[in-house]
Amino acid sequence: MDRLSTLLSQFGVRASLFYNGTLCGTATYDGQDLRGHLHLLRSGTLTFQGAGRKPQRLTRPSLVFLPRPSHHQLIVHDPEGVQLLCASMLFEGGVDNPLAASLPDVLVLALDELPQLAGTLDWMFAEAQGAHCGRDAALDRLFELLVIQLLRHLLDQRQLQTGLMAGLADGRLARSLVQMHEAPQRAWSIAELASAANMSRAAYAAHFREVVGQTPADYLLSWRVSLVQKRLREGRSISLIATEVGYESPSALARAFRRKTGCSPRDWVKARTGEKA
Q1: How many independent structural domains does the chain possess?
Q2: Once rounded to an integer, what is the mean pLDDT over residues 215-232?
Q3: Shared domain check, 245 and 109
Q4: What are the C-alpha distances in Å from 179 to residues 103, 212, 255?
Q5: Are 214 and 98 in contact (CB under 8 A)?
Q6: Spatial contact of 211 and 185, defined as CB atoms under 8 Å apart
Q7: What is the spatial order of strands in the sheet that 82-91 belongs to?
Q8: 3-class secondary structure, 251
Q9: Residues with Cβ < 8 Å from 61, sequence gap 6 or more?
């Protein structure tokens, strides 16, 4: 069972390297754009200051991952600086991306605690030091691979306690979530989903809500609306989208969309067009 590929095929992540070298002083990120950030501290000591968080001093090679836009600072006190690789991360769909929304505001992890990522990290650092053609493009792709491996690590170690990622890490819930992701057009019943989890309907519904934070029906609606938003951004018509995500008519889809978002698909598209103008 592949818990991530359908999610990533619908709501992928794109990386763009913007720093490779020695940082001295303070780097400040205002969190005003639509991008998150991934910072790799290769050597040296720095202080990470996130919004609403106590300053965190990093003395070991570490990964700092902020999946959503967030004001933060990297503060270097050593005049010799620190070695850093930094990329901006754009999850497709921005704040509507269900995968990004299920992650914490920030993850700070020592690299020696991430053995699954060791090979990719070694490759990245070697690429960063070299002067080969296509180096920056290669590092962009390696950052994207690193995010996928980090998501695997979070699932395998069950490091998140609530939300979609916690549900995918739960051995009883994962299969039913994957089924909803792979076939959103199907009218899933609690009985079918509970059977996939090998649980009674009542136990499944209660456990799903406790772990994921929504009822199965609410989660299926959220997933469908996320897919609708993706397709609307692509310029697809509501009439073509409706059947694909499990609604018998565009009006039925519009009612569900309004129930979830508070506005019609047409108004949602207009609002997004206004934001980009």
Answers
A1: 2
A2: 95
A3: no
A4: 21, 15, 24
A5: no
A6: no
A7: 13-23, 82-91, 36-43, 62-66, 107-110
A8: helix
A9: 40, 41, 42, 43, 110, 111, 112
Give me the domain span that covers residue 150: 5-157
Distance of CA 52 to the CA centre of its chain: 21
Q: What is the DSSP letter of 214?
A: S
Instruction: Kindly report the CATH number assigned to the domain that includes residue 61.
Output: 2.60.120.10
pLDDT at 276 over 60: no
Select from 108, 245, 2, 277 the least CA-distant residue to 265.
Answer: 245
pLDDT the model gives residue 76: 96
Residue 139 near residue 42 (C-beta atoms within 8 A):
no
In a domain, 226, yes or no: yes
Q: State mean pLDDT over 198-222.
A: 96
* Distance between first and last Cα of the chain: 42
Residues 6 or more apart from 145 whose CB is under 8 A from it? 120
Tokens of 168: 């995918």
User: Under a CB-based contact definition with an 8 Å cutoff, are residues 135 and 127 in contact?
Assistant: yes
